[in-house]
């Protein structure tokens, strides 16, 4: 076994990074002449770049989550992390590609002859390997983010590539342009989306005293999301999350005016609250919430990584806790770490019924194991999206505390009424 530093970062990264630093594929931001020479050579030699088809072949690997995870210790370990990442990048890219450590939080890889799909796949393999190596240091598998950048280099104007500063500016501008384009799609389609509120059954008390907010997006509405349902930059999901919160805020205020006291669960994508830029915009909406939200609105963070570190959640929830009464974490059926996430404001762990799929004996067994395995302290278990009565019954038998979906009750245009079932 190789030695490690006290931080948990493998010691072998020092040797790997030192050797890789002399490779022609690594762009040196400290040597402008060498940087310019290598980048212009890259443009001349690669058909994709020369034909202004580099769009999508620029990939950013971000360390924002890792920096937040290590806090004040980041300055002491960042060089080791950068060297480790550099070694992994070099193992995956081809001789036609180049890369650059743009700043403390970001690597940029320019793929020369790869298609966009191949560039995406390679970047994700790089992130997966780096995440795997860093997970031993308690970083979690979301430590390194991957984001494609739609960035074109015209054949007759390579000024954007002549220095690290111009490249960084161009990449960041391209990223912002892509995000704005995705947000514009959501804005243009907002009138076709309808807010609904789903009753949530308290299984033991046979009572509905909580609702689940949901934004119905018509199936024929194209928001530019891929086959996996995700947009290129995450801006679509972030815009939808802000829209849901705005509608939920209004509904909560109206319910209070009718003296209806039901709680409200509002979903948000993990990336929306994990990425600094998206989180800032989301917090702007949070600041407009009525004060009653502090007692009656819970935030459900969707698609949380099963290995998300407690410290990571604590950092994110610290920003959000002034506005909500508590948090619900949406995990996979394999999650068994509820007892490791105490003290962060997590009041329940959830499973999405849509991801469970067909209710086979194996799925029913996994539901039971999830429920039993996450019975920590006062933590509740929440099964949402139960499409059928059988699915809702299976969740009840698996001892989930709360169940929601068409198998429980249909959605409603308003929320707030408390009733027995």
Automatic annotation (TrEMBL):
The name this protein goes by in its record: GGDEF domain-containing protein, diguanylate cyclase (C-di-GMP synthetase) or its enzymatically inactive variants
Alphabetic keyword roster: Coiled coil
Domain of life the protein comes from: Bacteria
Organism: Thalassobaculum litoreum DSM 18839
Coiled-coil boundaries: 164-191
